[in-house]
């Protein structure tokens, strides 16, 4: 997926979206966050690891949107 921000900037979401293992990176390749369901046994639990100096709320919003898209 490609995420275009209203204030400028573009993020890429790459990985295995259906297995809930993906990375969020800026268009220039700078990492923003990792999303993983690998270590959680509870059905709707995820791990979100956000890089220092990155927007935690934005990373969480992207992860929630991807989950919603995958469910539909």
From TrEMBL:
InterPro entries: LOR (IPR007612), LOR_sf (IPR038595), Tubby-like_C (IPR025659). SUPFAM superfamilies: Tubby C-terminal domain-like (SSF54518). Belongs to the LOR family. This is Scramblase.
